[in-house]
Amino acid sequence: MPAYKDKVTGNWYASFYCRGKKHLKRGFKTQKAAKNYENQYKAIKEGSSEIKFCNLWDEYMKACEGVYKASSLHSKQYYYDAFIADSIGDMKVVDIESIDIKTLTDNMLEDNRSKKTCNSVIQQINACISWGKDYYKINNVERFKCFKITVKERNIWTPEQFNTFLSRIDDFEYYVAFSMLFWLGLRDGELLALTVGDIKGQVVSITKTYSYIHRISSTPKTNSSRREVTMPTFIAKMVHKLIEMKYEPEPTDRLLSFDNPSNFRYYLTRYGYGLPKVTAHDLRHSHASYLIKNNVDIVSVSRRLGHSNPSITLKTYAHAYNDHDSEVAEFIDILKKTADDELKNKKF
């Protein structure tokens, strides 16, 4: 159907039938805009190959609601608004080719965006199109390749380096917070979500994580992230002292008075001078590496970190095992010497 002009307002409107039902939409500034609306509406409702990426994205995000956590939805929409919308948003999905994605990522790299960020954008595009293939005639659209990235090993601190950092902090609350990150291996969101009721004796119950963007505590990263972490005695004493300093604390009161993870970055930058540069998450890696180097079995480390499978822990901390290579060689030397001694005493 053609678009129509409203004689009263001077604007255009679309009036058409789709799947046996009449649809009316007013308020378009131009006839072209009204016709485009009709075409895209029909493309969406009839599963047409004519659908534009921007419209497919809107449908995809509606489907994601209730499936993904608020923080994940926010991240998806951020990548779309910041990088995707202006590049391929107005293109028909079936017309998007690898060269279009290359142009998009080339522009991002010129703006000093990392390959990791480029990959996140490509992954969102692929996820949207993959979802759309079940509903629209876009099966011929290819899956776009991500950059190959060499994963850099994270910096970690030894207990001695951590103590150097800790000795420079005179705020007791932050002293306790960083001690929990390093000695318990918590994620920063898990620490920020803790309430007084989560502390029972020497046990910390991890049942939620905190999203600073939405100022809410939600379910943990994975089901395996729900866990109980036993505190060493010296950490437990610190934590209970912090709770005692609060005025009539309720179980639902947050353990820490701050909720912004950037506070961690500030302290690590200000007081971490002369030490390897680390993030709050690197303290978690430091904890795991320390346990592994001290021969704590991989299953126990995996459970303490809240990994769903020990293989994840092995993959993440393989470098810590590589550092044991010289120790393995020394161990074999000892075994060989013992075997040789036994062989000398052997009587046939």
TrEMBL record:
- PROSITE patterns, from UniProt? TYR_RECOMBINASE
UniProt keyword annotation of Zinc-finger present? no
Q: Which Pfam families match?
A: Phage_integrase
A biological process (GO) annotation for this entry? DNA integration
Q: Per the record's keyword annotation, is Kinase included, yes or no?
A: no
InterPro entries per record: DNA_brk_join_enz (IPR011010), Integrase-like_cat_sf (IPR013762), Integrase_catalytic (IPR002104), Integrase_recombinase_N (IPR010998), Tyrosine_recombinase_XerCD (IPR050090)
Q: Which UniProt keywords apply?
A: DNA recombination, DNA-binding
The protein's GO terms of the molecular function aspect are: DNA binding
> Where do the Tyr recombinase domain residues begin and end?
152-330
Family note? Belongs to the 'phage' integrase family.
* Protein name, entry field: Site-specific recombinase, phage integrase family
User: What organism does the record attribute this protein to?
Assistant: Peptostreptococcus anaerobius
